[in-house]
Here is the input.
Amino acid sequence: MAKERILKGIAVSKGIGQGVVFIYETKDVEVAQTPAPVQYPDKEVARFLEAIARTEGELNNIKERINAETGADFAQFLDAQILMLRDRDIISAVSEAIEQEKTNAEFIYHRILSMYAKKLEASKDQYLRERVMDIWDVGTRVLRSLAGLTHSSVVDVPPGSVLVAHDISPSEAALINPANVLGIAIEVGGRTSHTAITARALEIPAIVGVENMLAKIRNGEQAIIDGNRGIIIRSPTPGRVQFYQSEIKKEVEFQKVLSPYCELPAKTRDGRQIDISANIEFFIEYAHAKRYGAMGIGLFRTEFLYLTRRGNPSEEEQFRVYNELAKKMKPDPVIIRTYDLGGDKIFSDYREANPFLGWRAIRVCMDDLDFFRTQLRAILRASVNRNIRIMYPMISTYEEIKKATAYFHAIKKELHGEGVDVDDDIQIGIMVETPSAAIMSEQLAAHVDFFSIGSNDLTQYVLAVDRGNERVSHLFDHFHPAVLRLIKQVIGAGHMAHIWVGLCGELAADPLAIPLLIGLGVDELSMSPVAIPKAKMVLRALTVPECERIAERALAFRSAGEVKKFLRRMITKEFPAIGGIIGGAP
Ligand code: PEP
Ligand code: MG
Here is the structure.
């Protein structure tokens, strides 16, 4: 039996998951011609047809799940793939060639697909050229199926698995089935990488940044992922398993302690009301938001609509999602953030040396107004519910606000002209997540209805630390006084201009940060739904004057380490009821 081994990473999504290791590798399947001719070509044809049927079953399963999660028919790209899979011309060309050449199905299928792909690549029609990717998506599935390798995507992970990978892209992460995946461990990434955010959204215990893990772990062995301590234990000893069983029991007990907080008002002990809302990536999470007691959606990361499909979602598709979400959350507000694509959420073949400093979010929308228009129209049409707010990401200049707002008004006028009912009082806000926006917040506040501080990006840009790079993740710390001083400045600037200021980065859910943020005067905290009960528990133990005193002193320190040490000491002293839970919260 393999020896137990503990590997260290970074804890990004709380909880403990034990299961069978499933190593997710995206290696290409190798296709070769068998040296001897196949003896029974008809059996080879049958084997090929079975692989086609199996693949169709797989695609149908994925489609159902994506549609259920996104709340709309977002899996249409899979319909296109199924049609390609069933293409009669390809199937008969392959079957005939197998019969005639007495050669293995993989080799013939690959050859014929390559021919088709070449033809499409040469096409003048962009749509047809883009279908080459679909051809290879489908083709690789069939080839893997022929090779007896069933798992070609994260969607195929069997129940009871612990998912282990070098990396999972945000679009692949969006396809993970939480019913099957009990834990996730990846070699790269940091706490606020988007894969980590997805793991939290799906409530799957996860760790990232486990260097060189794949060389030390084997497919099929048992493993425990401890998302609290940031470790993965492969082949755990019986004693270790027992220890974790009792930890899981304790967690269940703690959840019972927390669950009454879902229902309780988000008020400090001395009566200050703070809006606690939910960050969501998928439509279906509205249900988690409600279950955990969110007072609205503080951040809908709409780019995930894009990442779970191929091609741009149409106005109608987007409208259906926003409209449904607004209806489900009514009368609570829903803040729809316009696309934040780019950075690590790559959506095209366009590659950049520094994607986080490049063509991302509002910059993409400003350069492609038609793309922006589709989304604005969809949001405005859904605003008929009167609870939608709109938010622009990655604002770094005043001109962006000016241009985006002017364009927004033009679209509104256009809809008025079409006789469409829209909310004329819709609030427009910006994410303050670049140093320039934070430093200029006093000037920007006059032009928007609210600020939402994106502490993930703000920390990344202020400290010059890539939020997804495990090599420098020890330098990524939201408690750095440079970040905290900017947060203070932004809240102050917002309040001077009489607008509300929220915070929707991961810092909002950290029990150690909440007293500090309350002390700085934040009006709203938006976080993963699952973090809400604990945040309410913390909030309800606090008193504003003490928080203000703590915040003032915290900002005088020289380093994140000093700030955290001070906060731990002060919170334990001033608010003993929450002293036990301030270790930090992924
Ligand atoms: C942030 O940057 O803090 C934020 C909330 O946005 P995202 O994590 O989606 O970039
Ligand atoms: Mg951001």
